[in-house]
Design a protein that fits this description.
Order of helices and strands of chain A: HEHEHEHEEHEEH
Shape of chain A: globular
Low-confidence stretches of chain A: none
Number of domains of chain A: 2
GO molecular function, one term (chains A, B): carbonate dehydratase activity
Keywords (chains A, B): Metal-binding, Zinc
CATH superfamily of the largest domain in chain A: Carbonic anhydrase
Helix content of chain A: 25-40%
Organism (chains A, B): Luminiphilus syltensis NOR5-1B
InterPro entries (chains A, B): Carbonic_anhydrase, Carbonic_anhydrase_sf
Largest interface: A-B, 95 and 95 residues
Oligomer: homodimer
Binding site for Zn(2+) (chains A, B): 38, 40, 91, 94
Number of strands of chain A: 7
Mean pLDDT of chain A: 97
Amino acid sequence: MSQILNDVLAANQEYVADFGDKGDLALPPSRHFAVLTCMDARLDPAKFAGLAEGDAHVIRNAGGRASDDAIRSLVISHKLLGTNEWFVIHHTDCGMELFTSEIMGDLLSQSLDTATVDENGWRDVGEGPGSTEGRYINWMTFKDNAASVVEDVSRIKAHPLVPNDIPVYGYIYDCRTGALVEVPEATTAGKAA
Amino acid sequence: MSQILNDVLAANQEYVADFGDKGDLALPPSRHFAVLTCMDARLDPAKFAGLAEGDAHVIRNAGGRASDDAIRSLVISHKLLGTNEWFVIHHTDCGMELFTSEIMGDLLSQSLDTATVDENGWRDVGEGPGSTEGRYINWMTFKDNAASVVEDVSRIKAHPLVPNDIPVYGYIYDCRTGALVEVPEATTAGKAA
């Protein structure tokens, strides 16, 4: 068995042993809100936003982007499970600022193996084969972190399946300090009607 | 200010006060793996899988489905940030088992407000207006939890941008006990080539 799999299952056994009465929690989030944020390993939304099990939906993808899939999740969150306030939280030092869709397409066409990066940019060290399929995917990179939060909040608010009265708060998590820093233009864009 | 926003920011201040040396964590996940799971409020992947900040990517959407967006995130996770083992973790009592794309389309066409559910099924109590846009979205519901894990692991393994040598483990989180229960057919489908 893989060491990682072994470690995850061992940690899970400890969690189960101390599970308490969490088995009684209801499906709908008890605090009626949802968080959309990045998959980045340094982010622990439950810890940085004070969530206990059962409190809130957490949606995560590369960049914390308001992709169609994130909006699918948010609409389910409100329409079927009653959340009525949403957070969009990007973060400093995000990997999505370090490449472009063109770079990703080029790297994947060379090999599927993990590339390396240094001050000269990305370099593929894999042996291949690669695939040109990466050229048909929008990788949803961005250059300006605050602008990306504004764009994502605006896209959510403009969606025809999102009610006007759901406020959407735009924030950037600072990976150096753990702090949530407001993006005021995003929060303004995300105000309830 | 909303009570929820106030509470989240207060919890964040406590997190910042006790942040320690986590500001030095590197961008790539130190334990080189990624987890794809559901947005469900009862699931805390860091707790149930034993993750500290910096350890692993966590991708979450409604159902923990291997959507195009989840695959976008997984490919970035491996190609640029070096993860080389992935988990797909669905869970018992998932909301995605309680409706169909047709039901969701009907409900949203009546109103965008939160619907109610009882033994007679979903019922829209909103005042409208609704939108027929929901009929153009695949909501990615499922009826058989284990089968959905097998499907998602199989889709990931079959993707042209996913290297053969990445093992993908299929599990179901039991909301009553906190336990991760293997879906053996999924893990077999997810084995490294």
